[in-house]
Amino acid sequence: MASAQEVKETKVLMNTEVRPLPGSLGTVPMFNSNSPEVVRSNGVLLSLLPKEGKKFPDAHLEYPLKGRFRVFTHHINNNPKQDRVLYLGLIAYNPDDNDATVRILNASSYVSQPDAPFIKLPVIADNNDGNVYAGPGDRITNDYLRGDRQTGWPAKISVPAKGYAIIYALPVQVRGLVSQSNGRSTLLELTSSRKIYLAEVADFIKTENSRSVESPSLERFVEIAETHTLADERDKTPSVPGAKGPLIYGRVAGVQIGCKWTGTATDGEKDITRLTVPENGKSLAFPICSLERGTFGTGQVQSAPLVTRYADTAYAAHGNYAVEYRLQFPLYNPSKSKVKVSVSLDTPLKTEDPKENLTYFEPPAKNTFFRGTVLVQYLSDKGKKTKDYIHLVQTRGTKGKELLSIVMKPKGRRTVQLSLFYPPDATPPQVITISSKEP
Q1: With bands split at pLDDT 50, 70 and 90, how would you rate the model's confidence at 238?
Q2: CA 41 to the chain's CA centroid
Q3: Closest by CA position to 46, among listed 252, 268, 324
Q4: Alpha carbons 241 and 191: distance in angstroms, whole number
């Protein structure tokens, strides 16, 4: 429940029509390992391996992947003694009689310290050079939005017949850190020539007086996968879908279906080729990452469904971490006068009630709800093709600043494209708002 101070500061912005976001997530699967977020013990984080022959069969979901898929993982090493390095190992098992080839089409992985510290950033900043980010989730999605591939990753990995191979072995070090905590976010795009099973495991290694330790072997990672149970500590158990009372979304450990949302916003049945801009002084909004009890009255839940999961983890990929959004807005000005149209990304208060409209805090709250880069592409008023990467930091209840502003001629048309990878550590939902006023 909002505090008395929050209620006093709430500002309701009227004249905003909220419509469902057009498009869909697609069907490319994503291996999503985010539970437990804070890892305390050696063990299985997410295993799709067959159950047969495993000491703890329930730790394995027995779900093969083939063709194109993505991998997203985020885990934290919180070690006050600073005496253990957490190694995250992703291994692949090939059940076939022939070798399998896994190609790494794109890859990005960072730890918060020293790669991407959580520094204070302005609410809006030019990020055309790609150097503005805070946190590993912000940085991996910043890379992917540009199509940048992190150096050091192999082009392909061979997984032997009836055998295992390491996809990665990545350390999360805490020695020497003031916070005694460090997290790693990883995003991969892969394709496999044959059916394979993936498993990510956690292995803690004593550091003693050394800052670096030898990476665990493939045999060690396989041993953990085959003989250990799920790693501790477990996160809060999620609410059953449709349950009344307080809602716990839970963290994700499973395979989601869909990791790229593409869509074009139009007038629908009236005209599928254009989107009429709102009348002067009014706004039109589309949710981003809408979720259960947070659809702004549209009824649209964008959370990617999970085809397999552990019983104590989220029922859907609430938050759509690392999900790609590619959206088009073919704007049309139907009036006989010029109109100034602006586009923003905003973080209104989450609601399911359409009567509440979009509600913001003035001033916004202090806790960060969105920290990431968006890409906007459009034709400027001077006819120049414009491509801007813009980094945003928004707290709960933020009415965002303009990402772009254009003056549209009477009966004029202009297409705006907006793209982003939803950054891990953000809190959904957000909206894309299109507003009109006199030039």
Answers
A1: very high
A2: 26
A3: 252
A4: 33
- Using the Cα atoms of residue 350, residue 71, residue 34 and residue 247 in order, give the sign of their dihedral: positive
As a whole number, the mean pLDDT across the chain is: 94
The token pair that represents 91 in the structure block: 């291994």
Residue type, 50: P
CA distance linking residue 346 with residue 158, whole number of Å? 45
Q: Residue 14: is it exposed, middle or buried by C-beta count within 10 angstroms (0-12/13-18/19+)?
A: exposed
Q: How confident is the model at residue 6 (pLDDT cuts 50, 70, 90)?
A: very low
| CB-count exposure of residue 436 (10 Å: 0-12, 13-18, 19+) | buried
pLDDT of residue 12 exceeding 70, the answer is: no
Mean pLDDT for 14-42 is 94
pTM, two decimal places: 0.95
| Mean pLDDT along residues 334-347 | 96
* CA gap 131, 198 in Å, rounded: 33
Average pLDDT over residues 150-170: 98
The type of residue at 37 is E
Would you state the structure tokens that stand for residue 438, as one six-digit string?
């006199």
**Cα–Cα distance measured from residue 147 to residue 267, given in angstroms and rounded to the nearest whole number:** 31
The answer on pLDDT for 322 being more than 70 is yes
Report which of 175, 179, 223 is spatially closest to residue 203, judged by C-alpha positions. 223
Per-residue pLDDT, averaged over 307-333, amounts to 98
Question: What is the per-residue DSSP string for 38-102?
Answer: EE-SSEEEEE-S-STT-SSGGG-----EEEEEEEEEEEEEE-TT--EEEEEEEEEEE-SSS-EEE
Stated as kind and residue range, the H or E segment containing 66 is strand 65-78
Q: What is the mean pLDDT of the segment spanning 50-72? A: 98
Relative to beta strand 181-206, strand 84-94 is antiparallel
Rounded to whole angstroms, the Cα distance separating 229 from 44 reads 6
| Runs of H (alpha helix) within 10-116 | none
Dump the DSSP string for 305-345: EEEEE-TTS-SEETT-TT-EEEEEEEEE--SSS-EEEEEEE
Residues 6+ apart with CB under 8 A from 212: none
Residue among 313, 373, 249 nearest 32 (CA): 313
pLDDT exceeds 60 at position 7 = no
